[in-house]
């Protein structure tokens, strides 16, 4: 091999290693909202770039992999500096961050491709601090550049990621450029086919987090598995590389314990908890928890509760409960876009509360951390999910790695949220050998990361005559018998539903993860008139009668709280790109069926005392 070739190979290898491993985002720090931080939300300049002009040269090679590393839009040249530059952020319009691009510019409603974001900011650097550039979520693939240098790549549209930028920031002016690509691809998670809008862009908060050089990176403070009396958790300090004392305080419970980390900054602990007010939807008690290391201090609000199953019962703090739920997408119908603010999130949660819910299914991907914190505060149990949806590429190891990563990051981020009762590993995945292996591994992974919560998936039913059977082998490995069924809509008629019964092969609590029917708010007819509110109303009456007969029914999340946007829903009169299974319209109007479910939840109890 010639010297030149050798050099080239080494260069390619280094590029590969830096972009695909070390240059990539790193594990995110716990509780960024509890840190010293600079919000980079607000107006960002943007360039629509369908040909990836700002990323690839005319031979389709990435500029950032060339020798100079220059040539892309991330250089952020202005015409003052270089009159031949064929772009200029300064004269472009702005998008609001957080927020999807589709709902902010008519040209972008259906856009699937590449778009560049740019924002300037200033920092006054302190030499004894560390700085992390943190993204709440960007859909789907993002390439992040700071002051013209690449920080790395991230894939996955719903999970947070961050870069350590401590030695890359300028004291004073800085600029960050992000290339976002929301092109759907077969081997990604989710895959090309979903029943929701493929909102692109920087959809969640961007934050510059500041910590001391040695900082508390992560912690878990939760009750041990099914144990009402003991806290089990860990603290991870980073940056010191030596043993040190860390103090954990819960002032209201008069708890103050000191633990000593190992030389990697890690300590695992258990300690007893007395006279505690357990968290529940009726009484969502949160305690202030403070962790102090030799250099850092962080405060969180944490609730304590146990959840487990015994045969067909779900026990919350030892008592049998019924999960009165509703499914929810991360979307504000009034905007026709992703939820952006706390106000948006509270609107959704208030609707769920108004319906009488104690539980929500945050379908079909990881929702905003702020949403989980609000669920903790207002008292709603949560089913949290990863976008392993329908038919993804079961035998591609990269696809598995991606799904596992999204699951892991979601669990790591939200492990201290009492509201999360259930980790779901997927939705309506078709049975096959490859899928069983994939999903089996994902279930094991979820359990190994967090065995204090229930693990579930939305399975499907088989029908023959008037019998709907649930016997997906995955059910053996899961904690719930949960499945979607569309009796009265995709199959059969509402009036026929009393004839159906369920044959569920698992001695586990039955939690119906979906059922639903479409109705256009304000469209009235008799109960046989499809798309009318009356049709949906009768549908709910008959569904609830049918489901009531299931032995071991312990909860449900009908599909869905609010009408939501989907490219699959084309009917020009009834749908116009809205899935109309909501109990509330896209303008916030409650349909008749809302009141049927509200009434059902009002009187629903578990008769058995456990
Ligand atoms: C389902 C899917 C959900 C769809 C829904 C529907 O089974 O899980 O994502 O939106 O049906 O409306 O068809």
From TrEMBL:
Residues 110-212 form the Glycosyl hydrolases family 2 sugar binding domain. GO terms for molecular function: beta-glucuronidase activity. Its EC number is 3.2.1.31. The keyword Zinc does not apply. Residues 215-305 form the Glycoside hydrolase family 2 immunoglobulin-like beta-sandwich domain. Residues 310-602 form the Glycoside hydrolase family 2 catalytic domain. Transmembrane segments: none annotated. Keywords: Glycosidase, Hydrolase. InterPro entries: Beta-gal/glucu_dom_sf, Galactose-bd-like_sf, GH, GH2_Domain-Containing, Glyco_hydro_2, Glyco_hydro_2_AS, Glyco_hydro_2_cat, Glyco_hydro_2_N. Belongs to the glycosyl hydrolase 2 family. This is Beta-glucuronidase. It comes from Flavobacterium arsenatis.
């Amino acid at each position: 091999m010639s010297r030149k070739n050798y050099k080239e190979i080494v260069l390619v290898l280094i590029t590969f290693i830096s972009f695909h491993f070390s240059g990539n985002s790193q594990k995110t720090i716990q509780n960024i909202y509890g840190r010293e931080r600079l919000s980079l939300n607000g107006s960002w300049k943007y360039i629509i770039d369908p040909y990836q002009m700002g990323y690839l040269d005319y031979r389709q090679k990435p500029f950032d992999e060339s020798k100079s590393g220059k040539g892309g839009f991330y250089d952020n040249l202005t015409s003052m500096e270089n009159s031949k530059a064929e772009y200029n952020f300064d004269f472009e319009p702005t998008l609001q961050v957080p927020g999807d691009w589709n709902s902010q510019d008519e040209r972008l409603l259906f856009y699937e491709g590449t778009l560049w974001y740019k924002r300037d900011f200033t920092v006054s650097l302190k030499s004894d601090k560390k700085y992390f550039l943190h993204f709440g979520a960007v859909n789907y693939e993002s390439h992040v550049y700071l002051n013209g240098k690449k920080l790395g790549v991230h894939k996955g549209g719903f999970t947070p990621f961050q870069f350590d930028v401590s030695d890359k920031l300028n004291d004073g002016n800085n600029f960050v450029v992000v290339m976002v690509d929301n092109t759907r691809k077969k081997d990604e998670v989710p895959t090309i086919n979903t029943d929701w809008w493929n909102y692109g862009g920087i959809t969640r908060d961007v934050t510059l987090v500041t910590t001391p050089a040695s900082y508390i990176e992560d912690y878990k403070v939760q009750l041990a598995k099914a144990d009402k009396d003991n806290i089990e958790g860990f603290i991870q300090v980073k940056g010191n590389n030596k043993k040190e004392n860390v103090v954990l305080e819960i002032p209201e419970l008069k708890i103050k314990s000191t633990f000593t980390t190992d030389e990697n900054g890690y300590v695992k602990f258990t300690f007893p908890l007395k006279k505690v007010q357990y968290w529940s939807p009726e009484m969502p008690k949160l305690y202030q928890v403070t962790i102090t290391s030799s250099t850092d201090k962080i405060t969180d609000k944490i609730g304590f509760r146990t959840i487990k199953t015994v045969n067909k019962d779900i026990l919350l703090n030892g008592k049998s409960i019924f999960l009165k739920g509703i499914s929810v997408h991360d979307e504000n119908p009034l905007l026709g876009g992703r939820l952006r603010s706390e106000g948006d999130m509270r609107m959704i949660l208030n609707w769920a509360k108004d319906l009488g819910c104690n539980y929500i299914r945050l379908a079909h991907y990881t929702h905003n951390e702020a949403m989980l914190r609000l669920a903790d505060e207002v008292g709603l149990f949560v089913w949290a999910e990863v976008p392993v949806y329908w038919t993804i590429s079961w035998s591609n190891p990269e696809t598995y790695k991606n799904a596992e990563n999204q699951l892991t990051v979601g669990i790591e981020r939200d492990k201290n949220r009492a509201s999360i009762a259930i980790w779901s590993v997927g939705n309506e995945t078709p049975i096959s050998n490859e899928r069983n292996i994939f999903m089996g591994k994902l279930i094991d992974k979820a359990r190994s990361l967090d065995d204090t919560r229930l693990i579930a998936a939305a399975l499907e039913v088989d029908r023959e005559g008037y019998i709907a059977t649930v016997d997906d082998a995955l059910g053996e490995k899961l904690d719930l018998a949960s499945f979607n069924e569309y009796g009265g809509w995709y199959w059969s008629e509402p009036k026929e539903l009393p004839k159906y019964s369920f044959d569920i092969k698992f001695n586990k609590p039955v939690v119906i993860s979906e059922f639903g029917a479409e109705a256009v708010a304000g469209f009235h007819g008799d109960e046989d008139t499809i798309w009318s509110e009356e049709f949906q109303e009768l549908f709910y009456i008959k569904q609830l009668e049918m489901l009531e007969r299931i032995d071991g029914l312990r909860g449900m999340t009908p599909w869905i709280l609010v009408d939501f946007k989907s490219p699959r829903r084309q009917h020009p009169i009834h749908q116009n790109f809205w899935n109309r299974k909501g109990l509330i319209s896209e303008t916030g109007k409650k349909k008749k069926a809302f009141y049927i479910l509200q009434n059902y939840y009002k009187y629903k109890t578990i008769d058995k005392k456990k």
